[in-house]
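Researcher: I've got a protein sequence and the SMILES for adenosine-5'-triphosphate. Could you write out the 3D structure of the bound complex as structure tokens? I'd like something to compare against our soaking experiments later this week.
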Amino acid sequence: MAIQLIVASPELRFHDFVREQLVRTPNAEIVSEHEDMGPNLPMRIAHDLNIYPQAGVLLDVSSDSEQGLRVLEQMRQSSPSMYAILSGAQLSEEFLLRAMRMGGSDFLQQPLKRAEFNDAMTRLEEHLQRMHRQGRQFGRMYTFLGVKGGMGTTTAAVNFAALCARENKSTVLVDLDMDSGDAACYLGLRHQYSLADVVDNLDQLDQAMLDGIVARDPLGFSVLCAPTEFERSQMIGEQHLREIGTFLIERHDVVIVDGSRALDPLLLGCLELSDSIFVVLTQEFPAVRNAQHYLGALARAGYGHEAVKLIVNRHDKRDNLHVSLPQLQQTLGGAPFWVLPNRYEEAMEAIHEARPVVTRGNTDLGRAYREFGKKFGVEGQVAAALQKK
Ligand SMILES: Nc1ncnc2c1ncn2[C@@H]1O[C@H](COP(=O)(O)OP(=O)(O)OP(=O)(O)O)[C@@H](O)[C@H]1O
Ligand SMILES: [Mg+2]
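Model: Sure. Here is the predicted complex with adenosine-5'-triphosphate in place.
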């Protein structure tokens, strides 16, 4: 997982050392630096943590350890889940105990040594992974990827978002398809702002700002739309997406990404944060061939069977023209996680009415999506109730 660090020290050499070490550490960066250790330091750090909730705080207490403890105490009050690393020369046992009681997470002796610093970063990363796994602090991210255009990726992402929202999970759908972001259109949502506006305001991003940028579906989930202007989508980078993804996971139960087709750095930044990656394909030959390439690329990037789940869309039992399910399984080295029936009319009617098919009582496709949702603890209870009527 990406390591982000907020560094506070009056010593330039301290900052230089940390910078030098982090440059050599993959996926690690300093997100904010403070040299002024004055009384409003806790407030400035709280502001940083609002933008980078996963960041660890490295606090140099060498010049005044008592003042350091006061800063720690105040930071802990405003950000109870903060991970704080205190660093000082000759930290006494008594000091360490008091710091631990106030919520210090780790300690670094000065002068700083490379190996000890790296060990502290490893502990920070392990802490983040633990938090992520326990799901205490972070929501879950699910990314949908189509192996080609037109596989049904947006339809799947939109319906999964609808199921999650119906279970009262705070849900945001992120449209990463910079070529033809369809999510808002499929939901009949007008939007003025997009992902590009989040990037433009990343420094001051907070929940209120996000609420002003997203479009809101009547089912209760938010949609962070893709930019409509090509030039603006070009300026969105991998690091932006990591930061935005982290921000969203921290504040929602579920983050759903309608992924672009190319396995580009933008998307890879998102996959790092994703609990599941749904690869959507149909049984057409070119789609199965592309799926083979995708699975290979994902495996090389470190994503194996646990995270990557195949969704076969538009399955038709009577179809002899396409790759059969057993053939598909043999070619791709594993069974599909889910198979959705070919129901073009149902899918199109849902688009025309700008309502996800899971909200339509008696449809095969809606039923299939609800069964899919059950695997993740979301079955869209309202929709199920409608169906019984
Ligand atoms: N299970 C299904 N059966 C039949 N048609 C479907 C099914 N799912 C989606 N479709 C239809 O397939 C078309 C493409 O769907 P969708 O836009 O969701 O795909 P996509 O992969 O996001 O496409 P794009 O590459 O344009 O982003 C739409 O017309 C949709 O209604
Ligand atoms: Mg799409």
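Model: The chain is about 45% helix and 20% strand. The pocket of adenosine-5'-triphosphate (ligand 1) is lined by residues 146, 149-155, 177, 180, 182, 313-314, 340, 342-344, 347-348, 351, 365 (CB under 6 Å).
Researcher: Great, I'll pass this along to the crystallography team.
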